[in-house]
Amino acid sequence: MGKHHLGFGLVAVAALVSALAASAPAQAATSAQPAVASHTVAATETPDGYWTSERMRSAVPGDVLADRAVWRASSTAVGHVARGLEQRVAGIEAKASAQTKAAKPKPNALSTAESVVPHIGKVFFTLGGQNYVCSGNSVAAANKNTVSTAGHCLNEGPGAFATNFTFVPAYDNGAAPYGQWNARSLHAPTQWSNAGDMTYDTGFAVVSPRNGQNLADVVGASGLSFNAARGQTYKAFGYPAASPFTGQKLISCTGPASNDPYNPQFAAQGIPCDMTGGSSGGPWFLGTSSSGYQNTVNSYGYGSRSTVMYGPYWGSVVQSTYQTAASS
């Protein structure tokens, strides 16, 4: 999410794209092939000590990258995303978890201040010479070292993969109680890496073990759900940085999902939420807690004071991307 908010001031453009889509000839829906782009991270791409406290605080919220993809919105494929049978992956409990406290509602009730959740954190990365920040989550995988985030938080879409990618679980006002976990590989759907298709704005990073321990064993890992029914209630988390937020605390939003009325071709769903830039890539859980199955990520919104956050539908393409990362 960007200078002000995911999607930043795109309502007029989105409405125009929606109108064009409505007036275009009907096309037969075609299933996207679940191809995956993967990048092995060289040791020199994330040098130890790169992410100092100063660099973390000055990193630009990554929604400016999502903004570019939304501007390139296409009306050639309306509201279709590859979908198979619903499947779930069970979560992994941490050996030791931090204590969490009751959430603190804000007056507008669109978002809530949260205490840290061990498996949710910030991701920091470099693209095009610029340092960025997004949000991410440790997810269950055979390698026990997989992190989910938005596609635009690890690949230019279209373009190069990020360098200096690191995950900081349970980040809290500059504190990193579980340290920095550097990526050893990055994975995104080719629909994102080749074309920046917002329908598939999801990516997975595989991090290296730290001090001989796997990420999931230290902070736990969320279960995942793919090809789920639409319109469910979600709880989303992230680290929004643009005003009125600071990026230093974990924030959540909870509510029922509905379809994006401006760009239906993205097949995304939105929930009531006013999180701003920096929350991109944060996890959405089915239900009303961080212990549910993760089913998408924060992707984009419209305008600097957006009251809806959108996330891509996790169908067969995203599932294939996850499976590639989880087995690497």
Automatic annotation (TrEMBL):
<protein>
    <submittedName>
        <fullName>Serine protease</fullName>
        <ecNumber>3.4.21.-</ecNumber>
    </submittedName>
</protein>
<keyword id="KW-0645">Protease</keyword>
<keyword id="KW-0732">Signal</keyword>
<dbReference type="InterPro" id="IPR009003">
    <property type="entry name" value="Peptidase_S1_PA"/>
</dbReference>
<dbReference type="GO" id="GO:0006508">
    <property type="term" value="P:proteolysis"/>
</dbReference>
<dbReference type="GO" id="GO:0008233">
    <property type="term" value="F:peptidase activity"/>
</dbReference>
<keyword id="KW-0378">Hydrolase</keyword>
<dbReference type="InterPro" id="IPR043504">
    <property type="entry name" value="Peptidase_S1_PA_chymotrypsin"/>
</dbReference>
<dbReference type="InterPro" id="IPR050966">
    <property type="entry name" value="Glutamyl_endopeptidase"/>
</dbReference>
<feature type="signal peptide">
    <location>
        <begin position="1"/>
        <end position="28"/>
    </location>
</feature>
